[in-house]
Amino acid sequence: MAMTSLQFGYAGMNIITKVSLNHGMSHFVLVVYRHAVATAVLAPFAFFLERKVRPKLTFFIFCQIFALGLLGPVIDQNFYYLGLKYTSPTFGCAMSNLLPAMTFILALIFRMEKVKIREIRSQAKILGTILCVGGAMLMTLYKGGIVPMPWSSHHHSSKADAASSHDSDADWIKGCLCLIVATLAWASLFVLQASVLNKYSAQLSLATLICFLGTLQSAAITLAVERRPSAWAIGWDMNLLTAVYSGVVASGIAYYVQGLCMRLKGPVFATAFSPLMMIIVAIMDSIILSQSIFAGSVAGGVLIVVGLYGVLWGKVKDSKISTPAQESMLPTKAIPDVTNKQNESMMGIDIAVFNSKIKSEEK
Q: Which of 191, 220, 239, 350 is deepest in the core (most CB within 10 A)?
């Protein structure tokens, strides 16, 4: 539910960001403001809620978090905003749906995801990832006929189509390359963040550090690239709304929810929900912007849903197989070494019985 709700936030971010970029806002400055807002929002919660459970920040972990700030706020978002500027929100969302496939491949390379071709659960994850990516691309590349909706209007303006038709081929190719680089950086962030969470399990603190370091890195790059002081100016307009909304929803809440999901289910499970953004954008375009929903969008949406079911089914089977193996290892572990709160609550009855037996023997 959390990852599904997050896709609505991403869809809204794509729409308002495109408006701000069209009005001349620098994407470098937007990244700085976005993560500055996210840091300010997350820092108080991380300080008070995780004060007693925050692990020790070693130099190696700090270097990994520094890399996360470079992959996410700096590389991913700057290249994504640049690609969004040269193309369109719909195409940007479609390219983002390459994320599950890229994450799945990276997880295989770093041995974070196990695949046995002869097992049905592995086949389901592979086929589901292919269907998710294929459905997302179908929604973008194939329109088909108009699907009538009760709330939609059939009178459309051709200004947007006329404007997009005049975009140069060079800018379009440049935008595609930027979006591919952004998606690869995003997938790398998912894989590295899942590894960091095994050593630094405080999700709020980790998200705050990523946003803070990303703000410093982005500010340094922006000062070197953006020499115009007027580019930093911001008022009570769409630019401020974009920075605040993106910082709170797409950075602050997103990093925490993604980290929590990755710790519980793994990086592939977390990224499997990203294709839903294409469906949400299509529906929002129909309701808010009165644009038509085409048969290609419906067909692509069906493929995405089926693909998601395949990936989630495979992950559920993985968890069912790994859980009995973990439970069989519990008796060999010393009771004081149990650190997971859920395991402590499940073992609470056994511990109580064990302690009562010791007390009865002492008496």
A: 191
The rounded Cα 346 to chain-centroid distance in angstroms is 31
Distance between CA atoms of residues 259 and 256, nearest Å: 5
pLDDT along the chain (363 residues), means of 10: 80 84 88 93 90 90 95 92 80 73 78 79 85 76 72 50 50 80 89 87 89 95 89 86 90 74 70 72 69 72 79 74 53 38 39 44 46
DSSP structure string for 202-262: -HHHHHHHHHHHHHHHHHHHHHHH---GGGG---SSHHHHHHHHIIIIIIIIHHHHHHHHH
Beta-carbon-side half-sphere exposure of residue 29 (alpha carbons within 13 Å): 17
Tokens in use for 361? 């023997």
Q: Are 91 and 179 a contacting pair, CB within 8 Å? A: yes
Q: Which amino acid is at 141?
A: L
Q: What pLDDT score was predicted for residue 256?
A: 73
54-93 burial, b at 16+ Cβ within 10 Å, e below that, comes to beeeeeebeebbbbbbbbbbbbbbbbbbbbbbbbbbbbbb
Q: Which residues contact 23 (CB under 8 A, 6 or more apart)?
A: 238, 239
Q: In this structure, are residues 206 and 258 in contact, taking their beta carbons and an 8 Å threshold? A: no
